Amino acid sequence: MKRSNIIISSAVLLLIAWLLISGWMQANSYNTMKSGRTNKYTTTIGNDKVKSKVTFKNIKIDFGKQPFYPKTSIYYNNNQEITFSKSLEKQYSYNISRDTLYLRINYETSGIEDYVNIGLPILKYLKISSAFEGTGASYTDINHNISVSGFNANTMSVIYNSQNDLKLDNNKLKKLELLGDFHGRGTVNITNYPDYDSLDVDVKGKDGTLILSKYPKAVENKKQWISIKIPGSFNIEAEAGASIWSQITVKK
Amino acid sequence: MQNIFSFNRFRLLVYKHWNEVRTKILIFIIVMIISALFGTIIISFLNQDLMFNILSNFLVLFGGIYTAMFFKDWSYKVRSASLVMLPASTFEKILLVLFYAVVVFVPLFTLIYFGHLYGLSKIFHKDKLFLILDQYRGLSPIPAILIYAVLPYIFFQSIVLLFSVWLKKNQFIIAFVLFAILMIGVGIWNAYFIRSLISVGDGFPTVSKQLVFFPLDASYWDNNSKIRTQLITSNNLVLQISVIVLTISTLLFYMASYFKLKEKEI
């Protein structure tokens, strides 16, 4: 065998061997980190978890003037937790004052996988603001929305002054109050709306959209009180023939 | 040639090559500038991963074509004889390729690329941070460029060089196809292999970000589509050994190119 061929074979064998060994090492270190143990050579780079002992029931989020935003999930959780994807580093700031979380996001890198997760047991008030005025702000990726999910409570008030997409999903409330200015093409999607005994919507916005869905249950709530006040140019999406259409008032 | 290396002879060889191809090199630089400009004008200012991917892809493409040019004369009998008869040692011929395709090309292209990015970001995104000046994957800019762009490039370049010396025709195309198969194959293999080893409970993991050259990150997206969670682990030991393994493989491919050329000359 020629010397050159021996060298080529050695290099190829070395690469294949390392491919297998490195894969095994990676998987091994991943399992170690996932089980909560530490590994001398492995670090977690995916999450930036904030542990705050100060409890909050109100959230105010300001997305500033940026056209894009990370996926933001606000969800029911027994324990309070705030998690940011690692690449959001330096693009957010927050503080908790009394019982309100103030979160400011200045999202410049627009990485497709970025997220903010806020878990808390009680959410009374949520205000979302963004100052971006222009086109091209909405994501076609359905994962890039702001969601509020899993809360079972008496009342929740949501002020939405944004062009982004907000989804109120799988909540069961005595009363939901939704106010705000959906500038740009701001959209709010309320799923399982029969689970809200009282639904009070009074919003502004030329090209905004309100989506109302009975999904995942198709059961009417006979006790439900609904008041929806929207501008004339607003878009409404709801099941055809649903009684909710008769409770929509177009503002002049 | 009696001596393996003579500095004076090598200097003359470098001048000879420059005189022969300087017009082509100047055209090449213009093409690099235009490519860097168009390839990055819109999308890459704000995303470090994208910046490094584009840099390493451009390096691989342009550097690979450039390397293949050195031995394109193998295809023609008369010209291949003049290449063999060139009054320089085999080592000097290989070194000439490395001098132009690595020592000159890499800093030149990196400067053109980042120079453009910096200039454009100053024009179009005045208020934003130019991310390359910041750390990348825990490394300061120069080590990051060396590990994530230059090392992958010289690894590819060593394969192109080997194929250029080894094969008579379509050296670059064959090397490029092989390299593409290697990249895709390693990506698929990594995803499959690592996925089979990691434990994620009931959910189905998405293993992502295993770079082709460095199987660095294993990440898992929570199967709950409503809330996104991710765990990315970075194994520094894997990174360090990967750098060593790739460096050794690159050197071995260079050595193999040297012996292949020597065998051809005989």
Task: Summarize this structure as a short list of keywords or feature phrases.
heterodimer; A: 252 residues; mainly beta; Pectate Lyase C-like; 2 domains; nine-stranded mixed sheet; 1 helix; 13% helix; B: 266 residues; mainly alpha; two-stranded antiparallel sheet; 7 helices; 2 strands; 69% helix
Write the layout of secondary structure elements.
The complex is a heterodimer of chains A (252) and B (266).
Chain A: H1 3-34, E1 42-44, E2 47-50, E3 58-62, E4 71-76, E5 81-85, E6 92-97, E7 100-105, E8 115-120, E9 125-129, E10 146-149, E11 152-161, E12 165-169, E13 172-181, E14 187-190, E15 196-204, E16 209-212, E17 225-231, E18 235-237, E19 248-251
Parallel strand pairs in A: 3-7, 3-9, 4-8, 4-10, 9-11, 10-12, 11-13, 12-14, 13-15, 14-16, 15-17, 16-18, 17-19
Antiparallel strand pairs in A: 2-5, 5-8, 6-7
Chain B: H1 7-40, H2 48-70, H3 77-85, H4 90-124, H5 141-166, H6 171-197, E1 217-221, E2 230-235, H7 236-265
Antiparallel strand pairs in B: 1-2
Describe this structure in words.
The complex is a heterodimer of chains A (252) and B (266). Chain A has 252 residues and is mainly beta. Chain A folds into two domains: 1-44, no CATH class; 47-251, Pectate Lyase C-like (3 Solenoid). Chain A is built from one helix and 19 strands. Chain A has one helix spanning 3-34; strands at 42-44, 47-50, 58-62, 71-76, 81-85, 92-97, 100-105, 115-120, 125-129, 146-149, 152-161, 165-169, 172-181, 187-190, 196-204, 209-212, 225-231, 235-237, 248-251. In chain A, strands 2-5-8-4-10-12-14-16-18 form a nine-stranded mixed β-sheet, with no helix packed on it. Chain A has a nine-stranded mixed β-sheet with strand order 6-7-3-9-11-13-15-17-19, with no helix packed on it. Chain A is elongated and about 85 Å long. The termini of chain A are far apart. Chain B is mostly helical and 266 residues long. Chain B has one domain. Helix content of chain B is 69%, strand content 4%. Chain B is built from seven helices and two strands; from the N terminus they run ααααααββα. Chain B has helices at residues 7-40, 48-70, 77-85, 90-124, 141-166, 171-197, 236-265; strands at 217-221, 230-235. In chain B, strands 1-2 form a two-stranded antiparallel ribbon. In chain B, a hairpin with an 8-residue loop joins β1 and β2 (230-235). The chains are: A mainly beta (252), B mainly alpha (266). Chains A and B meet through α1, β1 and β4 of A and α6, β1, β2 and α7 of B. β1 (42-44) of chain A pairs antiparallel with β2 of chain B.
